[in-house]
Amino acid sequence: xxxxxxxxxxxxxxxxxxxxxxxxxxxxxxxxxxxxxxxxxxxxxxxxxxxxxxxxxxxxxxxxxxxxxxxxxxxxxxxxxxxxxxxxxxxxxxxxxxxxxxxxxxxxxxxxxxxxxxxxxxxxxxxxxxxxxxxxxxxxxxxxxxxxxxxxxxxxxxxxxxxxxxxxxxxxxxxxxxxxxxxxxxxxxxxxxxxxxxxxxxxxxxxxxxxxxxxxxxxxxxxxxxxxxxxxxxxxxxxxxxxxxxxxxxxxxxxxxxxxxxxxx
Length: 265
Description:
About 65% of the residues lie in helices and about 0% in strands. It is mainly α.
């Protein structure tokens, strides 16, 4: 490892994971496509120090992306091996990195931690699963996402419901029931993600929930669901939202026009 690279990574490893400068350095490493950078990151990922392992894995997940990840084949076994770690922070980084690599050969390593006691690890599993599930998605991946959509941690539920409803195309009774079970989730965006997922599948349970939410300061997930469902029954409420200036407060104002168009027949 050249001296400048060693100093850079040593500085990053000494920082807390939330430090902006640390992530600036990780971003620099992601843009590198040279072998010394990869070897340095791989060495860190195998370090005896947990903080260094976390840093190495955070780098390996996206290293070399400007040139289609030239080290992807060498990266995958390092990430899979890291999923045998006992440190939750290392598992979080390893599973997250497998999601970034998006190779279905990492599926088993991700699935192994679906019931981990640490919510941070389960969140990483929920986020990574849609990306490693394969196409069509493996049944076990779909089943675990359905399980995680009922997780005690609201952030895990939120992300798992998003993966199940929007990222994966699976349309089974298991998927629909899992989404329907989240329609009245009081925390985060789980309910909105569930509605959107049901609307994308034209499930009849979507329309009454949609009409109810359209009357109550809906967020953009609800408007997306209206566009996906395309029901004329939603048109009056959508037109009223336009008159009330809904678009002025949303960062994606075109969503409302798209929903109105879809529901206009």
